[in-house]
Input
Amino acid sequence: QVQLVESGGGLVQAGGSLRLSCAASGNIFSINHMGWYRQAPGKQRELVARITGGGTISYADSVKGRFTISRDNDKKMVYLQMNGLKPEDTALYYCNVVTHTWYDYWGQGTQVTVSS
Output
């Protein structure tokens, strides 16, 4: 059994900040990639940020300079610091973990709503 649990979402005004956290637990020996995706109503799920096991980080163009991804390998956690939030950031944010067996796991999502 493998489980990913996201937390930290909420309702904020434009320009505000949130910090998302994701904890991985269960039958996971080791983790390769960790990342965050988001999906707004009526839109496709999109990659927000990703960090590899070697520490290589990538961001969607829409969040560069505003969001920061980080991970704690010992705790098997990944974080997303979101600053300068915009209404277009409103979405359900999903944690994604790729294990050493290259199997993808997903959390159930945490809602981020940014008001104008």
Remarks:
- The CA atoms of residues 19 and 114 lie 13 Å apart.
- The chain has no helices and eleven strands.
- The longest strand covers residues 18-26.
